[in-house]
Amino acid sequence: MTGHPPSAILAGMDTVHISPKRLAWLRGELAAWEADGLIDGDAAAGIQARYAASRRFALERLALVLGAAFVGVGLLWTVAANYERLSPMARFAGIVVIWLVAVVAAELLASRFPGALPASVRVIAVAAAGGVVFQTAQSLHVPAGSPELLGAWAGGALAYAYATRGRAPLVVAVGLSVGWYAWWAAENAGSHGVVAVAMLVAAVFATAVALLHERWTPAFAAVWRPAGVLLALVGLYVAAFPDRDFRTTGALWTGAAVAVVLAAVSVWRSSARGEIAVMLGILGAGFLLTVWDPSGSMTSPSGAMLVRAVAGIVGYVLAAAWFAFLGTSKALPGVVPLAAGALVVFVTTQSFAIFAPLFSGAALFLVLGVVFLGTGVLAQRGRRLIMEVSR
């Protein structure tokens, strides 16, 4: 055994399949051991190569999470449906009691049954907290259609997620936070381009937060990183459509400044400079696409429109390919299917937009079929190439 390095010995052993959560924890531990000098990079890579994320479908977890989501929506709906029948004090006291009961029940369950059951009750607690926020705002005569209320709900959900170290409430909190920022940035703007750039700014923010979590809280990094990927792909998708009414807002500049500062901190605290550079490049590309108005071209508006469409398609395909490579090389759960699914949706919509004016009837379906088959072949070939390169 002295003639073989530890990584070669470990790589030759059978692969052990564990849950994505445990695999993320293992990566964090290996990074900490390597930073402390307990093992070298070769040994860390060999240990990590022995483990793979399990792809088993947890039906009971899905049922519990969906059930919690429906119960949470049902609670809010019940309060809204009986809004006029109850006094303000009864409405406020009722939703507060529901929220407190959910919080206490979640922690009692977490102490005895760790897993999906307490996570589902925590989701109900987050939903009930939203009811508390909006009911309090109504008592204070704050308009319900205000982004500040969603921001308060998102902030409370984030605090609750970190206090309980729960990934399920963190998923909800991240979604609420993105919704709040996009709403705040696009308020009174009337532009889908502002929403697109806000999503791209949030993508940089989420990626930087994920990198900062990788060492100390890898389970939370597994939430923030896919959120960054999804935001980047959705933002590029929306930016691909021309927007003549785009204009920057103070919220966009504020969010961009915070995201850039956080990205610099994450580069300083980690070695993932490439990820941050790519996300900043995607933000820049999306911004350029958004401000690019082909109708204002003095030469040929139709030609400028075609060039812009091609640029958007190329940029989106490159971004999806990068995320697929990142997810494969780092064994990030959910990232590769997310990138592949987003690419299929993008190709579908763009193909209809490009070929519908040129073909009709059977010819349109034949052309689209050829495009989809070609996309599938290239995606399959690309996946094999990425797996070979990342080995």
Task: Tell me about the largest β-sheet.
Answer: 2 strands, parallel
- Give the distance, in angstroms, between the N- and C-terminal Cα atoms: 23 Å
Instruction: Report the mean per-residue pLDDT as an integer.
Output: 77
Q: What series of H and E elements makes up the topology?
A: HEHHEHHHHHHHHHHHH
Number of strands: 2
Number of spatially distinct domains: 3
**Discrete helix count:** 15
Shape, per Cα inertia axes: globular
**For the CA atoms, what is the radius of gyration?**
24 Å
Helix content: over 70%
Low-confidence stretches: 1-13
Spatial order of the strands forming the largest sheet: 1-2
Assembly level: single chain
Tell me the fraction of residues in β-strands, as a range.
Answer: under 5%
Find the structural class using helix and strand composition: mainly alpha
Describe this structure in words.
The chain has 391 residues and is mostly helical. The chain has 3 domains: 1-56, no CATH class; 58-187, no CATH class; 188-391, no CATH class. The chain has helices at residues 6-11, 20-35, 41-49, 59-81, 88-112, 116-139, 147-164, 167-186, 192-216, 218-239, 250-269, 273-291, 301-329, 335-355, 362-390, and strands at residues 16-18, 51-53. Strands 1-2 form a two-stranded parallel sheet. Helix 10 runs parallel beside helix 14. Keywords: Membrane, Transmembrane, Transmembrane helix. Residues 32-167 form the DUF2157 domain. It comes from Actinocorallia aurantiaca.
